[in-house]
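Comment thread on ticket #2218

A.B. wrote:
> Attaching the input chain for the structure job we discussed in standup.
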Amino acid sequence: MFTSTLIIITALAIDWLIGEPKRWHPLVGFGHLANRTKRHFHQQKSSPKQQIISGFLVVIALLLPISLASYFVAKLDVIGELFAVIIVTLCIGHKSLHDHAEPIARALQAGDIEQARYYTSRIVSRDPATLHIPRATIESVLENGADSVFSALFWFLVGGVPAIIFYRLANTLDAMWGYRNQQYLYFGRFTARLDDVLNYIPARLTALSYASVGKTKDALDSWQQQASQWDSPNAGPVMSAGGGALNITLGGPAQYDGIWHQRIILGCGQEPVAADIDRALHLLRQSVLLWVAVLILLAGLSYA
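C.D. wrote:
> Ran it. Output below, let me know if you need it in another format.
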């Protein structure tokens, strides 16, 4: 526990000081590899069953060799620990969330709605012309905080380097293929279900973290009353607790590919405004500090 905690603190510090690589990010490279591999497996004209099997095979073919190779590298003396720091740094996206959300808040505060809309369209998949910019941005911060920060840290604590790599690659595939549309409805089903399973416990720990450092009662009440009505089993707890913790409302109607989706309202209080983006980022930072404090406490107890 002591070594894992030290690796996490070091990785979080490096990520905060440097941020993610601007070019040649390994996850981007993995995405290109996944798309090339997909061409040999994915045939839309095949039956739904064949597409599901193909989706399963391509995920296994991509994830297992990389995760297995990382296991042996992580076992090497000295090099293994340095490798772990590098991998954890690359797998978390804490600073990246700030780098993407802060320009949106600044543009809104300057009255440049179109610039803010453009920045927001880069981080969400909704139709740009219909965006509620503060709400969409905060939803992205809260949900991606769960995926790219807390879930990644959780799996590193559970299974070390192979587990965090397996999780992060699975999460990347879900972002690429986990859609309920004609192209990926069957082929992407396995990766979507795998991502749901891998995020189940971390999402609830994230929701509990948001509740702990924000308006606790509102967060817990929103989580209890609203999460089960959301279409995602993991985003529901995260965003309802996050909205309650910030005392703002999230969710509501949103347009994707020209089609309106009537989502329920999450959280409580007022509609979010530009200043609430900074509050959401602050909530995320406080939650990270909470995890660090808990890890230090557990490491101290185990060391004693």
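A.B. wrote:
> Thanks. Noting for the ticket: Residues 155 and 163 are 6 Å apart (CA to CA).
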